[in-house]
Each structure stands twice: as C-alpha cells, then as structure tokens.
Amino acid sequence: MLPAMLSSLRLHGRLHALAHPARALANNPLGDPGERVSLVYVPPGEGRFPVVMLLPGFAATHRSMVGYRLFEENTVERFDRQVAEGSCPPAILVMPDTMTRWGGSQFLDSDATGRYQTHLAEEVFADLDAAFPTLPEPEARAVAGRSSGGFGALRLAMDRPGVVSALGSHAGDALFDVTMRPMLTTAAIAIDRAGGLEAFARDVDAKRREGGPKGTGAFDALFVLASTAAYAPEPGAGWPHCRLPMDPASGELVPDVWARWRAADPAVRLAEDPDARARLAALRLVQVDAGDRDEHGLHFAARRMAALLEEAGARIAHVEFDGGHRGTSWRYGETLPRLISALATS
Fold it and tell me: Which one of 43, 106, 121, 195 is CB 3.0 to 4.6 Å from 199, fit for a cystine?
C-alpha cells in the first residue's frame, strides 16, 4: 500500500508499491532491511508496456522521484503529463529502493554492503514482470539514473548483458581521476577530524537521527565511505569492512585501494575492457549528458565516454546542457522520450 503522501498524487496513470521478498539483500553486512519495496508507475491504457528502471543519486531514494516540489513537477508527474499529452511514448517506470545506512549502495554487489546489482538485475525486473503488464524482454527494458544512479545504470548495462537494451546516464560518476580525486581531500579532513574511518562510521550511526555528521567535508566523507564500501570491501577487516583510497592523516592516495576504485570506473572500463565497450555498443541507445559546469567535472566524464562509444560504433546521444550538477531532474523530460522510443514496443 502506498503512503498517503504518494497516493494523493494526481496522475493519469497509477502509482503502485511492489514488495520484494528478502533474497539477494537478506542478511546483508550492514544489517539494512532485506525486504524492499519498489515504486511502480503504470501509464493509462491497455496492453503491455516497455520498462525503464530509474536509479536515484547518492543520499536520495526512490521516493525522491515522487516527492513534492514547490515550483516544478517531480519526475513521475512530468512523465505522466508527457504520456497523457502524447509527447512521450507510454512505459512502466520502476523505482527500486537500494538505500544503505551509508546513504547509497552505488548499485553494486559488495561484501561490505550487500548484493544490490543482483537485486536489480535478477529480482526487481522478475518481480515486476510477474505483477505488471510489462513486455518482459531485454529489448523492451532500459535503465537510467542521475549522478550515482547514472553510474549504476552504466555498470548494470556493462556487467549484466542481456538485462537491458538501452541506458541513460545523467552526470553519472566516471573518470574518477578527474572527478572523484578532489573529493578525497575534503573527505580526508572530515574523517581525520573524526578519528579515522571506523570512528567516522560510528559517528554516522550515532548522529543518524540528528541529520548525520556535520561540518566541512562531512557529506563528501559520507559519499567516500559509501563508495569505498562498494568498490573496496574488506569483509575480514574491522568495521565498516572496507578501506579508504586515501590516508586520512595525509590526504595521499593509497595506491592499491585507488586502483580498485579505478577498476570500478565506467570510463576506465570503456577504455580498457573491450567486452564492456562491446556490450554498450550493442545497445539500442546510450544516452550520456551533464551540465557544462558540473561542479565535479562530470561533463568531462560524459565527453570521454561519448568519444569512446562513438569510436566503438555505439548508438550514442551525448548532450552537454547549460547547468551544473544539482537540480537537473528536468532532464528526464527530454531524455525519457528518446530512451523509450528506442525500445521494442511489441
């Protein structure tokens, strides 16, 4: 059942809650809930529909896409209006819950967080197909996301061939040497002041009901904690069962851990792994975009990936729009019609 705040949305289609039994996420290392609920938007009309999985950015949830906004439509309201007016083909949207106690899973399988990519690829789509009028073939499925969600979309398509046939990455995390490296310095300051990684992680838990750790670099430190739990898990190590890519006492890189971060980087994978490049080149459409003054330089990442994909012969749509990293959910109004038009409809 939907919470009252969501069931009150005025839509032409309908919003549903889809429960997933505890399977891939059961007994996860962080003690986060195993059973999850996805939000599912079903458009008006009869027949079966293609599916787009939408992944939120870091520290956001599936509910962010249906949340109230004072001066603009949320993602689902905008999509519903476009479908109703005929400016976008109808599709089912599925918005899974992949939140962790650190603010996000990066949508990967990790021994320090849980099997989140498995949950998306093997459970969410299967449960959706069983409960809703989907077209249950990869040719009728896409995945898209913003920021960390864009990273998750890229990695899902790279790592799980035959699950989706199109993807959209909106300022997706990539090209870490350029975009993530500066953040490690501010994160190191916050983690060092907290007394190290374990102390910082315990501070996150202790201050959960107070809005989390505060101060300069605290949010960057939380992002680095969540990311390194995804990229560099150490299940045999002490809490929080991962290693940092930098020394918080000096800010200097830890080469072997940074190498693990780079191995997770979609831009590095596209440059160095022919199989990853071929998998994206085989898709019906790859969309990458970012604002031309993205605060993390993720437009540089989008440029690099677009160039690599064009060279590989991919069907690529690359846009650099006027703007930064935040407040860009409006981009879905431009990209979902293109993404869905690339999918099979029968």
Answer: 195
